[in-house]
Amino acid sequence: MPARERVTAVALGLALALTPAVLPPALRPANAQAPQAGQQTRPVLRISAIPDQNPEKLNRLYGQVAQQLSKQLGVPVQYVPVIDYAAAVSAFRTGNLDLVWFGGLTGVQARLQKPGAQVIAQRDIDASFHSVFIANAASGLKPITSQKGLGELKGKRFTFGSESSTSGRLMPQFFLQQAGVRLSDFAGGAPGFSGSHDATIALVQSGAYQAGAVNEQVWKDNLRSGKANRNKVIAIWRTPGYPDYHWIGQPNLDARFGKGFTGKLRGAIVSWRPSNPEQKAILQLFGAQQFTGAKASDYAPIERVGRQIGKIR
Predict the structure, then answer these.
(1) pTM value?
(2) Is 74 found in the same domain as 16?
């Protein structure tokens, strides 16, 4: 096994061992004990997500998601953090994760590597998602009115987010290519890869990079929280819309949890509404009003672009 996969496997194993399952009140014993020999245990729904934002926010969000799904479905649910985008795809492929919140590109990659995997749901904002190109205020870059204006980024220190991010790399690179900007055109002959949207914003704001591309939702969150200082970092262009994030489930969920479980899971997620206080908190962290149904064909444009730039083979 390659060293990178060994590290991923060890990290995932530790997460599985150290992260407790979330049980609905009716299933949670007062003094939980290890099962006796021969005693059957209930299967645990293991959920995860690509680490596109800071771990504190992810732990808060998916801890609440685990509690809500456990309450609605009556099964123990466990949130398992992963170290990077590739680890999320790998753990889904091996069956160590049952339900994962993927971006557009990683979702396509995961389904191609796991035949029969099911697209469960997307947010109301994911059918037409957007990236934002940002720039350090001292870079000399100004807001542009058309895609051709991305040519101004040639010769600049530029960073994407994760190498496998749809909104922080795949689609921004696609729009750059359409504008005649190659990756070798950036200062140093290549772009940087910050690892996450929050990191991209921080690096551009600090001046370490003159410009970058980020998820529009994370950009807005950083502006609201004050982490992004408008006097130091500015938005210069918003991309056209494209399909992005979505939940993907394993093909064997019904076999493990009972007939019709996949449908029940989908129904639970799309039922979340702001009128329910617990669900409202989850939706706010997701930056959405609700989740809706989705299908694999919705992400065909992402697969085409992924193959075009070599992220899918």
Answers:
(1) 0.85
(2) yes
